[in-house]
Design brief:
The protein is α/β, with parallel strands linked by helices. Helices cover 33% and strands 22% of the residues. It has a 6-stranded mixed beta sheet. A 4-stranded mixed beta sheet has the order 10-11-12-13. Strand 11 and strand 12 form a beta hairpin. The longest helix is centred in the middle third of the chain and has 25 residues.
């Protein structure tokens, strides 16, 4: 019986080497600072396949994208305590960040979950601001400025928490909005990460009918490879985490079809590799979804 079970497990392992790389990632999601820069580590290892944050400090949340919305929505886990995304110990870091893109908007919402401790909630503001500055700096160094990214924050606490409203008002007067949300159950944050908030907005809980994820959303959240397959044509070095831009491979099929996403301050290139018969359908599907988001024109994305 044990031998039969072992054979069954082995048969599920992909036979293609590139597909095996992705499967092995499930057992090791440790950040790779030798080969990848900050943004690459964020996109490869920190995306969450489900937009759900378990309870912490008495609060929890989910993001359920409305079935009427044509958008891309990704949740990132930022506070990796044993394997931090921000390695400078003096810098504070928040819990999560969402990326929301539709045909008109691109919003990064930094989310910090806190309990009832007043000092802790003051620190929550600092965690949001510090990560905003760090992320903006990295994006300015590595990516095109054609996509106008908006930044905002959410401080999620229980009902009986003491919220630092004066500090939130001060940041609002400087042009940065942090929305305080108080809720004791699992908050639904879709309506608050898919629009630009005012700090005076009030949370209203709403049940939302889930949309089907885009193909490119599935790629970005579940198919990023933790190794580069062939980076030399794009980065000139397959072992340089300090290069400009990002270069990430995404698995397209268990047969080993994959694409390379390369982006720097000047251009964005998608290069599809594998079975020649599969290239055109993949490109057509990706182009259709990028057009829904108005990204091909906005960012001048090219296919190779």
């Amino acid at each position: 019986m044990k031998q039969g079970k072992n054979k069954q497990k082995k048969s599920k392992k992909p036979t293609n080497e590139i597909a095996r790389i992705l499967q092995d990632k499930e057992n090791n999601k440790k950040l790779d600072w030798h080969n990848f820069n900050f943004l690459e580590n964020l996109l490869i290892f920190c995306t969450l396949p489900e937009r759900i944050a378990p309870q912490e400090s008495g609060v929890a949340f989910r993001i359920t994208v409305d079935c009427q919305d044509k958008c891309l929505c990704i949740l990132f886990g930022i506070d990796r305590r044993d394997d931090p995304l921000i390695r400078e110990q003096a810098l504070k870091r928040p819990d999560y960040m969402s990326l929301y893109i539709n045909e008109n908007l691109c919003i990064c919402t930094i989310i910090e979950m806190k309990g009832t401790n007043r000092n802790s909630n003051d620190n929550g503001i600092e965690q949001i601001l510090t990560f905003r500055d760090y992320l903006k700096n990295e994006i300015d160094k590595h990516l095109t400025t054609k996509l106008k990214i908006k930044y905002q924050g959410i401080l999620l606490t229980p009902y009986n928490a003491s919220v630092p409203l004066e500090r939130i008002k001060k940041e609002a007067s400087n042009g940065f909005i942090i929305l305080p949300i108080q809720y004791d159950k699992k908050a639904e944050l879709y309506n608050y990460i898919s629009r630009l908030n005012k700090f005076t907005d009030k949370y209203k809980h709403q049940e939302i009918t889930q949309s089907a994820p885009l193909f490119i959303e599935e790629l970005l959240t579940k198919k990023a490879l933790p190794k580069r397959i062939n980076a030399v044509p794009y980065t000139k070095s397959s072992n340089n985490a300090e290069k400009e831009g990002i270069c990430i491979d995404y698995l397209l099929s268990d047969d080993g079809d994959y694409l390379t996403l390369f982006s720097n301050r000047d251009s964005i290139l998608i290069d599809i590799k594998g079975n020649e018969l599969n290239k055109e359908p993949y490109q057509k599907k990706i182009e259709e979804e990028l057009n829904i988001l108005n990204l091909i024109q906005r960012l001048r994305i090219e296919f190779k």
